[in-house]
Design brief:
Layout (H helix, E strand, L loop, with lengths): L7 E4 L2 E4 L10 H5 L2 E3 L2 E6 L2 E5 L1 H14 L8 H14 L5 E9 L13 E8 L9 H4 L1 E9 L15 H14 L4 E5 L5 E4 L3 E6 L2 E4 L10 H12 L4 E3 L4 H6 L2 E6 L3 E8 L2 E2 L4 H14 L10 E3 L8
Parallel strand pairs: 8-9, 8-15, 12-13
Antiparallel strand pairs: 1-2, 1-7, 3-6, 4-5, 4-6, 5-17, 6-7, 9-10, 11-12, 11-14, 14-15, 15-16
Bound molecules: 4'-deoxy-4'-aminopyridoxal-5'-phosphate (PMP).
4'-deoxy-4'-aminopyridoxal-5'-phosphate binds next to α6.
Length: 310
Amino acid sequence: MAFAKTETIWMNGRLVPWDQATVHVLSHVVHYGSCIFDGVRCYKTERGPAVFRLRDHVERLFDGCRIYRMEIPYTRDQVEAAILETIRANRMEACYIRPLVFRGYESLGVDPFPCPIDVAIAVWPWGAYLGKDANEKGVDVMVSSWRREAPDTLPAMAKASANYMNSQLIRMEAAVNGYAEGIALDAYGYVSEGSGENIFLVKRGALYTPPLTASILPGITRDTVATIAREVGHTLVEERVIRSDLYLADEVFMCGTAAEVTPLRSVDDHELGVGPITRELQNEYLDAVHGRGRSRPEWHDRLPAHTYRR
Ligand code: PMP
């Protein structure tokens, strides 16, 4: 996907033109992956643009920074306000939002402590992550030969840039083999997650999803889908899943802020149908993010509906 550039990016407290939002090549983050980030979406709703579960995304950003001893020089409220300000400044009606906290330019020893903590927020329009027809028709995926990090190597709970080198191996292996995405097992052989999505299975009417101990990112979409599933009366079980469960499931889907709810058409060439429970939860999810149906004010941070160009 080429960038659909927007006008300004928030960097360390001020808005700078998109092309000037640069870092020095000797910044710690460039060499050692020292960055925690998040991915958030703002949706067009009938009552104006609304950021979906902003507080939860910011909380996860702070949690990741805490694990890596990165003290963000702003409060949660300030980061939330800066995200809303960046959307407003770019007059976005619907967009993807990428807040980043990273170790900047000071010294290049592995020890990160001397380096400053830089914060940036960018927004841009971003459509269907796994391809145009993905949400409708589903995608074909493979189980990756790459495993997720063991819990005592890189903590999967932190959305750290370094973890995405592992995600890239998973994603590239899938791509060169003709699949839309890869599913990684954890270090112990249990199903973990996709390179950028969590996973749910449906079997005999009940939903299953791997637990947080399976080296997964605690996905906010995962939590949203779980909440909705329980509300509409489904049984949801968080338990270890093995590879063959994926083949024998009635339905499997992936979910994430970028991917939303994407049905799987096949796993390792074992055919799966796009089933009714996936479709129901996909519709419920899209209603929730667009502010339709059941009212969930706690999930939306609204922006005033004027001066938007997209
Ligand atoms: N797992 C990984 C590895 C991810 O990158 C993402 C996307 N952030 C997810 C799961 C889904 O998380 P969320 O629903 O919060 O976007």
